[in-house]
Amino acid sequence: MRLAPVLAAGLLFGCRDFSEYSNHGDHFEGAVAPGAFVRTGIPSDLRLCVELDATAMQSAPGTLVTSNGWIASGTKLRPLPHVQNDTLSLLDFGEGRAKTTLFAVTPVGEADATVFLSFMNDDKLEVRVLRSGPRDEAPNDYVFGVFGLTRQPGPCPF
User: Fold this and answer.
1) Could you tell me the CA-to-CA distances from 38 to 91, 109, 120, 135 in Å, in that order?
2) Is the pLDDT of residue 26 over 60?
3) pLDDT number for residue 5
4) Is residue 158 part of a domain?
5) How many CB atoms sit inside 10 A of residue 126's CB?
6) Which of 66, 69, 77, 86 could connect to 103 by a Cys-Cys bridge, CB 3.0–4.6 Å?
7) Whole-angstrom distance, CA of residue 154 vs CA of residue 101
8) Residue 93: C-alpha distances to residues 61, 76, 101, 126 (Å)
9) What is the pLDDT of residue 62?
10) 45: number of CA atoms within 13 Å, CB side?
């Protein structure tokens, strides 16, 4: 049934049209927030680029890349379809955010990380990247970082 994906997309994003966040020859770029209280396992000078197709959020939403190659160029944001059938799809991260969605991404040679992508009301994106928690019996591969991204002309420079 072809109507089901259309209905699901409508429920996911409500009445608001998020296509305005799609890249048309530009990208979203920004630095990780400073301070250890919002950053661990990520260098303080790390930058993130997102190229987004907001009309395809459940199939091919876009790509991420980091300035240091931790997330390689062309790394796909992978939708988490079952989340959209759960109350997690109703996440509200507070004022200024129109909608927050969840994705998976695979850094180079590492385990998957979860990406929380927030559409901000001012044509910006906010991205949180996190992976696991500290473990006593293994190397600490905990990652957490918050990135504020603004629209920039042209393709991602890294």
Assistant:
1) 19, 24, 18, 19
2) yes
3) 41
4) no
5) 20
6) 77
7) 25
8) 20, 24, 10, 10
9) 95
10) 3
Does residue 84 sit within a domain? yes
pLDDT, residue 93, reads 77
Task: Please state the domain count of the chain.
Answer: 1
Cα gap 63→61, rounded to integer Å:
7
140 in any annotated domain: yes
Beta bridge partners of 39: 145
Q: pTM for the whole thing?
A: 0.84
Q: Indicate whether 137 pLDDT > 80.
A: no
Structure tokens at 9: 């997309």
Residue 28 in any domain: the answer is: yes
Cross-strand partners of 152: 27
Q: What is the pLDDT of residues 109-131, one digit of tens each?
A: 998 999 999 999 999 999 999 99
Query: What's the domain range around 77?
Result: 3-153
What is the pLDDT of the chain when averaged over all its residues?
85
Q: Which CA distances in Å does 50 have to 38, 137, 138?
A: 20, 34, 31
Residues in the chain: 158
pLDDT at 86: 80
> Left, alpha or beta for 80 (phi > 0: left; psi -120 to 50: alpha)?
beta
Region of residue 75 (phi > 0: left; psi between -120 and 50: alpha; otherwise: beta): beta
